[in-house]
Amino acid sequence: MRAPSNSLLQGLDRLLPTYARADLTIVRGEGARVWDADGRDYLDFGAGIAVVALGHCHPAPLAAAREQLARLWHASNLYRTEPAEELAVRLSERFGGAQAFFCNSGAESIEAALKYARKATGKPGVVALEGSFHGRTLGALSATGQPAKWKGFEPLVPGVRFVAPNDVEALADAVDDDVGLILLEPILGEGGVIPLDREYVAVASALPPLLCLDEVQCGVGRTGSFFAFERLGVRPDLVTLAKGLANGLPIGVLLVDEEAAGAFSPGDHGSTFGGNPVSCAAACAVVDAIDDELLDAISERGIALAEGLAVLPGVQETRGRGLLLGAVLDRSASDVVATCRERGLLVLTAGEDVVRLAPPLTIGPEDVEEALAILASALGQGSPEAK
Ligand code: PLP
Question: Is the pTM of this model over 0.90?
Answer without folding.
Answer: yes
